[in-house]
Design a protein that fits this description.
about 60 residues; mainly alpha
Length: about 60
């Protein structure tokens, strides 16, 4: 599911609300051992665009 997240999130990044919704789904779908990798990838790619969305979505997940 991590690879799916890497495909879908850039495609929905035009909309903050849609991005936030899909990110939450992706976090729930990826295996626990892949959550840190998703966190890192998201911050590398979307930190400038949606820092508030990322911090809320990854709250409670250790990076």
């Amino acid at each position: 599911m991590l690879e799916y997240a890497k495909i879908i999130l850039p495609k929905v990044s035009f909309s903050k609300e849609l991005f936030a919704k899909e990110l939450r789904k992706c976090i729930n779908w990826v295996e626990e051992n892949q959550q840190n990798e998703l966190y890192t990838w998201c911050y590398e790619n979307f930190r400038e665009m949606y820092p508030d969305v990322l911090s809320r979505a990854f709250a409670g997940i250790a990076a």
